[in-house]
Amino acid sequence: LKPISKIAAGVQASTTLAIDSLFKQMKAEGKDVVGFGAGEPDFPTPEHIKQAGIDAIENNFTKYTPAAGLMQLREAASYRLRADFGLEYAPSQIVVASGAKHSVYVALMTLCDPGDEVVIAAPYWVSYSEMVKQAGAVPVIVAAGEAEDFKITAAQLDAAITDRTKVFMLNSPCNPTGMVYTRAELEAIAEVCCRRNVYVIADEIYCNLVYDDIEFVSFASLGEDVKERTILVNGVSKSYAMTGWRIGYTASNPELARVMGNYLSHSTSAPSTISQHAAIVALRGPQEDMQAMKRAFEKRRDHLVGRMNRIAGVSCIKPQGAFYVMMNMKSFIGKSMYGKTIGSAEDFAHLFLEKGLVATVPCTAFAAPGFVRWSYATSLAEIDKGLDRLEQFIQNA
Ligand code: PLP
What's this model's pTM, rounded to 2 decimal places? Predict the structure, then answer.
């Protein structure tokens, strides 16, 4: 057989998959394992949204829609962006795709030629670099450490941009760090992007999950020239506990929106019509359920961060948004635990799952070596169970 595509072959399997499959295998064997790996709300989709999906089926809204999504959904997204951030986008500038991940993918496919560079602010969501490679482009990682609150500076970005740079990938609130860029930080980044003429994919999927009255600033709101070069990515997955419905969207300049629509028309032909109807109700309907989930996440974060910082050997900074905590486990690197030398966060996470029966995500693949990500999209009782086990795991090592 002839070799398969070099681009496809170069895409790596998710490094978190190995630990996830071990977690699932242990669970299937009946072991009492606790999971903190999931990047999705544990809440069910709110009732009124589920009902909209049921109604869509009963009303026979089960046919194809336009490739860029139902006009009512594009209007609903346009309405939300205006109501929440004061952003003006015509519905024709909104393009619906099969989840925010797919929206990022379509944006990269639309913007990048082979050999283009895409600067990624790190720690970053692991799919970004692989999607850049799928587009034939080259990921350029610019990283910030814990001491910088995991946020890169405008000067770092400026230094990473070359003649080949096409796009900067920004994710605030960030997965995996939970950190939120301030208005001043974003203004400095925007100045660099405009001066150096790069597009920005602003993944704002966690925009509604920001705590402590911290301000969330939508990147495109920083000025007309910024808005022109920004592809805003959002969706319903995280805000409305709708991960399985697979609805994401972009807001961009009309030319990009048109090309992304064309791209979709020859690939997915729009997401499920039923999901689109449910998403209209999520975006237009009452927002109280989302607010209640946010308050629950905030409480869990406070509890998890407070307790984790009282456990000897590990620590974390307080994340401001999303539902992830970065546990610093560097004090164990080079040490022996359960007869094994801990060389990395992967080693620690594997051993913690095997011996401690707790699944977490090592962050080496997110350009954050020495950190293990805990998702607190799980109950307070489970969080306590996980932390009790962490204490025992460390004590018994
Ligand atoms: N963007 C970020 C930063 C995420 O963490 C995730 C999900 O984990 C997504 C996008 C994907 O969202 P969706 O489920 O809508 O594809």
Answer: 0.96
